[in-house]
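1st attempt posting a full record on here, be nice pls
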Amino acid sequence: MRKRSLRDLPPEALDGQRALVRVDFNVPLKEGRVADDTRIRAAAPTVKYLRDKGARVVLLSHFGRPNGPDPTLSLKHIVRDVERVLGTPVEFIPDPAAGVAATRRLPRGGVALVENTRFWSGEEGNDPGFAETLAALGDFYVDDAFGSAHRAHASTEAVARLLKPAVAGFLMEKELRYLGDALATPRRPFVAVLGGAKISGKIDVIQALLPRVDEILVGGAMASTFFLAIGFQVGGSLVERDREEVAQSLIARAGAKLILPRGAVVAPSLARAAERRAVSSDRIPADCAIFDIDEATRLDFRARIVRAKTVFWNGPMGVFETPPFDAGTRAIAEAMVEAGKRGATTVVGGGDSAAAVAGFEDRLTHVSTGGGAALEFLEGKPLPGVAALEDA
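the predicted structure (as tokens):
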């Protein structure tokens, strides 16, 4: 079901109106400054469009996981970075209940940022009363926070039912287009690459993707659980022994679609990376653990990716935060770029994978801003923050 988008509202109707925009500014901070402004930049096109049309823009976001007000998690810390990215002064509203006058005072094209919505208990409780407080800050609602769409919170779900029109921003629209259309009606071959630590978090995704894909390439620590399921030893590798039967049933269902690594880069520990070596998957030493996919697997996965017409990737191939165990993950990113050059649609599903392709974003079709939301969307679960928006 297509949702109404900001594009569907008559531009002249935006002039002078207060746009209450839910963004995802849950960004990493380092020594009081934003360490990665990707999410702020991702919201900029929606904010710019609204400002150009004369709207007064009021931004809502959560930040971290505070239990009540916490000065270290105040959105005040990011105001300078938001001003830098948007190229305009940003007024800070410390309390939504006392903020209505400030929103009405904003000039046309002005921008305000409301304090961390999670400072109020009504946010995560999806409390109608808190949603009314938020709704009073705007004349219409725009949700551009795909990364928070899988949570039914007051600023993502309840407010969208109170404040109309309630539409998708440009980022939300793009997420729904690439995760929805590209993967529901993919050009083939359609290859999914799944990595990360746990099979448990990806079981539903694998089951949802199996009927749709031509191949699923598995890497990361979750490959260890599949190795265990086929009788290989995994040494000291991270493994979910209680998921062995689940892995066996997935292998049985997937047949030739499920492609496991041919080999691994192993070492006695992360700290002893100098002692790393490549071994085949059925020869993992008892005193070592798997930290990456080996060269043979990289070449195999690359060949399958560059032949594809649609590629979806979620989850790193190894401990990519710790070089030299980032080589497998980097190889996947490079193969995705190569596939894109050959005309493939290349989609990266947020979370760790988005961090892994830093620097490659502009050479991929779409890098999702929502890890958990992207996975739940692919599983076919309704996202409360999307469901609450108006249908087109």
